[in-house]
Design goal:
Elements: H1 4-13, H2 15-26, H3 29-45, H4 56-79, H5 89-92, H6 102-116, H7 120-130, H8 135-142, H9 146-173
Helix pairs in contact: 2-3, 2-4, 3-4, 7-9, 8-9
Domain RNA polymerase sigma factor 70 region 4 type: 109-160
Family: Belongs to the sigma-70 factor family. ECF subfamily.
InterPro entries: RNA_pol_sigma-70-like (IPR039425), RNA_pol_sigma-70_dom (IPR014284), RNA_pol_sigma70_r2 (IPR007627), RNA_pol_sigma70_r4_t2 (IPR013249), RNA_pol_sigma_r2 (IPR013325), RNA_pol_sigma_r3/r4-like (IPR013324), WH-like_DNA-bd_sf (IPR036388)
Amino acid sequence: MMTQIDFFHQFDKQSTLLHSFAYNLTKNSEDAKDLYQETAFRAMTNRDKFRQGTNLKAWLFTIMKNIFINNYRKKMKANTIMDNTDNLYYLNSGSHAIENAADSNILIKELTEMIDELEDSTRIPFLMHYQGFKYQEIADHLLLPLGTVKSRIFFARKDLKAQIARQYGKLREK
């Protein structure tokens, strides 16, 4: 196990890179300083978890990146406003609004037809991915290399985008 003095010395060697990485993540010098300090604190308190002979720089950068991500998620969650008030606008407006899903049903039907027009070699992996299968699961199921599955899904998306552009491109011009 690395002694405390050796650990501090090795940490100090990474200080400049850590400051740069912190600024690169936050784009703000004060936030970068806070991120660096939090990283230093966590690294010092958890130095017993660092295994000597492994990459200290990568370990420190991982700590910093994880702190940044956790802080970002906390900020996003804090900025989310939950409106639990009753939405009585339509009840009090005096008019009767009836929702009609005809447009969306037509679009779904047309999109399904476009997907059905794809060749089996691209349609099947695309639909499996759409249904939630991971690339590796698709590759294993279809007995294909992982790269082939990824490229087929890419080409299916590309073909669908082209079909949509041909079908609905005229709408943008109006």
